[in-house]
Amino acid sequence: MINYNDLLEKAKEVSKSAYCPYSKFAVGACVLYESGNFYIGCNVENSSYGLSLCAERNAFSTAIANGEKTSPVAIAIVSPNKKLCQPCGACRQWLCEFQKRDCDIDVILEDENGQPKVFKSSELLPHGFDLIK
Ligand code: THU
Predict the structure, then answer these.
(1) Which terminus of the chain, N or C, has less C-beta within 10 A?
(2) Domain span at 51
C-alpha cells in the first residue's frame, strides 16, 4: 500500500532545495520503487535557460546513479508555487521510459486542499515514444 501523503511530504521537503533563481518556481519530486527505496529530486536551473533540469528527471537520475534495479511504482510532484503541478511533456516521456509494460506509475499531485490526486502515467502520456518494450 503506497502512502501518498508520505511521498508528497518528501517531495515538498526537497522542493525547498530547488535551485531556481530565474523562474523562482520551485519543484520537488519523490519517486518510489518496487524495492521500497525512494529517491528525491528538485529542479536545477541554468542561466542558459534551456539547460534547466526538472525535479522529476533529477529524481529518476538519482535512482539510476544509486544502482536502483527495480521499477518505479509512484512519483509525487509538488510545487509550493502551484497546486496540481503537472509534469511537463519531457518528464512525461521519462515516465514512459521507466514504466513497465502494462504497468502504470502512479503520479501523485497535491490538490487545492493539500490532498493527493493520483493520475496514471499512461493517462498523462498515451502512446509515448518507445524503442524497447
Ligand atoms: N519544472 C519542473 O521541475 N518539473 C516540471 O515538470 C515542469 C517544470 C521546473 C523547470 C523550471 O526550473 C521551473 O519548473 C519553471 O518552469
Answers:
(1) N
(2) 4-124
Q: Does residue 132 sit within a domain?
A: no
Judge whether 38 and 7 are in contact, CB under 8 Å.
yes
> 133 in a domain, yes or no?
no
What is the dihedral sign for C-alpha 47, 50, 55, 60? Answer: negative
- Select from 88, 95, 110, 125 the residue to mutate for testing ligand 1; criterion: most ligand atoms less than 8 Å from CB: 88
Domain assignment present for 54: yes
State pLDDT tens for residues 21-41.
Answer: 999 999 999 999 999 999 999
Question: Ligand 1: which atom is nearest the Cα of residue 45?
Answer: 12
Amino acid of residue 26: A
Ligand 1 pocket test: which of 43, 44, 110 has the largest number of ligand atoms within 8 Å of its C-beta? 43
Residue 53 is part of a domain; what is its CATH number?
A: 3.40.140.10
